[in-house]
Amino acid sequence: MSPEKGVVLTGSHFMLGDQACAEGAIYAGCRFFAGYPITPATEIAERMAERLPPIGGQYIQMEDEIGSVAAILGASVAGVKAMTATSGPGFSLMQENLGLGFMMEVPCVVVNVQRGGPSTGLPTSVGQQDMMQARFGSHGDYAAIAYSPSSPQEAFELTVDAFNTAERLRTPVLVMMDEVVGHMRERVVIPEAGKRPLLYRRLPSVPPSQYRPYRVGEDLVPEMALAGGGYSVRMTSLTHDELGRAVTDTATQAVLLPRLLRKVSEHREVYEQYELRHAKDAEVLVVAYGITGRSALGAVELGRTRGVRVGLFRPKTVWPFPADALLRAARSVRRVVVAEVNMGQVALEVERLLAGKCTIVRVTSPGGEVLAPELILEACSPERAPKVRG
Amino acid sequence: MTRIRFAGFGGQGVVLSGFILGRAACLHAGKNAAMTQNYGPESRGGACSADVVVEDKEIAVPVFAQPDVLILLSQEAANKNASWIPGAKLVLIDEDLVHLEGEDPKILKAPFTRMATSLGRRIVANIVMLGYLTDRSKIVPATAMEEAIRDTVPPKTIDLNLKAFRAGLAVPGAG
């Protein structure tokens, strides 16, 4: 499936991160957006409202964020690539139906342009406080996939990738932006339609009479019949068997749940992305994502001018965390600094992975502004005791 | 690298000024630019500012505290940004709207709003200011700025905006 010519806004633009995210969705073939506008994600809804109707898509302003996810799940089951976008307060409301999406295996993309919390917190200022919510926010065990762009260009690219991952693995995928990346303008280069490969869920390879909705082969991803296409589409939030029938016993659960987790963990090549800078000879490694990846790059560049052998590990996919890549990058460093605009969330994962291997220091922030490169660099010096900053 | 802050109140075209400069730098002058903005909940009248980083190489950090160039379009903006004046290399003010104590050769003044009014529309004061900024700072060439203005303003107002830009470029004094 490749987008029609004239639909994709190709070329170079000086564009907001939020708008680049919307353009990424359109590039990927998204033709349905349901949402409830909220700062700092409003410009995504605004852009989709403007862009979708003339290209045969639909924009619906929903009554709330619970309905927004319900609507995109429905659109996707009917065969249309669908997205919603929100910020922290709306993301909380979305958790219930996100779980429904994981359980029914419905491809879709949910964007969270993070601001400071908890609750309505800091509506117009930056935060990265929803990273653990992205991982564990909905109830039950599930494997979240979350991208985190550091620039408007990446907001475009990773939104395209999020759709591809969602379609390839039949699962909701999260794009965890932040207020600064969303509200920042930079050059965004959008390739010709079809230049970036696009994926679409695998449709049934058998006639309706032989179709078993949740039968899987080796890759653990079931073929997906579209609602209204002549196949029996049976989906439920309850534990279900291969036929999509609710069977709430331990044996069925013991087949379903491990498969849902393995479907993600065994396909790292589909979604795993990270960036290394100056990491080869690094004695200190800074781990940072989203807008803090930019502060961290500033810290690394500043440190290198002062003779500090510091490098950067920037996960573009924060969940599942690129664990092996971090272990390789940190093999010969003596100190790892985890910087994020929260009180220590992804730091927990890094600490778990590198426990006992090196000194791990957190640079945290209650939110509201971007971390200064100087503050991150200060944490790179060996004199500093490993402690949690307030 | 040059860090530029435009500060004024909502409705003065502060954000549009930053947008045009960033667009000129990154789409018409072969440089990189990053723009961030600050504003209150009001759409008009509240304090607002736009920060632009212009750089030949990749921009690591798109935000900053201390600007190199500070453009002050209201007294409130001047008061709010007073602490950044000593560290700035160049400060431009609308002389009819902003009063700063003392003389300093890096503080340059022109009557942007009055000049715009005499051109027929007060609303192009920010474009007059962009002309003045282009001439005094040399951050991007005037031709790149003119292209960005053409791309950005409503088609019917291109001539007026270019006239405003050139009026700002031509303000006499040290260039």
Describe the structure in brief.
The complex is a heterodimer of chains A (390) and B (175). Chain A has 390 residues and is α/β, with parallel strands linked by helices.
What is the CA-based Rg of chain B, rounded?
15 Å
Extract low-pLDDT stretches of chain B.
none
Main pleated sheet of chain B: 6 strands, mixed
Q: How many angstroms separate the termini of chain B?
A: 20 Å
What average pLDDT do the residues of chain A reach? 96
Helical proportion of chain A?
A: 25-40%
User: In terms of structural class, how would the helical and strand content of chain A be classed?
Assistant: alpha/beta
Number of helices of chain A: 13
Number of domains of chain A: 2
Q: Mind telling me the C-alpha Rg of chain A?
A: 21 Å
Distance between the termini of chain A: 49 Å
Tell me the series of helices and strands of chain B, N- to C-terminal.
EHEEEHEEHHHH
Beta strand count of chain A: 15
Q: Uncertain regions of chain A: pLDDT < 50 for 5+ in a row? A: none
Largest sheet of chain A: 8 strands, mixed
Shape of chain B: globular
Q: What structural category do the secondary elements of chain B indicate?
A: alpha/beta
Report on this model:
The complex is a heterodimer of chains A (390) and B (175). Chain A has 13 helices and 15 strands. Chain A is α/β, with parallel strands linked by helices and 390 residues long. Chain A folds into 2 domains: 1-271, Thiamin diphosphate (ThDP)-binding fold, Pyr/PP domains (Rossmann fold, 3-Layer(aba) Sandwich); 276-378, Rossmann fold (3-Layer(aba) Sandwich). The longest helix of chain A has 18 residues, at 152-169. The termini of chain A are far apart. The relative contact order of chain A is 0.12. The mean pLDDT of chain A is 96. Chain B has one domain (2-169): Pyruvate-ferredoxin Oxidoreductase, domain 3 (3-Layer(aba) Sandwich), CATH 3.40.920. Helix content of chain B is 37%, strand content 22%. The longest helix of chain B has 15 residues, at 14-28. By secondary structure, chain B is of the alpha/beta class. Chain B has 6 helices and 6 strands. In chain B, strands 2-3-1-4-5-6 form a 6-stranded mixed β-sheet. Chain A binds chain B through residues 12-14, 124, 180, 183-187, 294-295, 297-298, 301, 369-370, 372-373, and chain B through 19, 22-23, 26-27, 32-37, 39, 41, 59-63, 65.
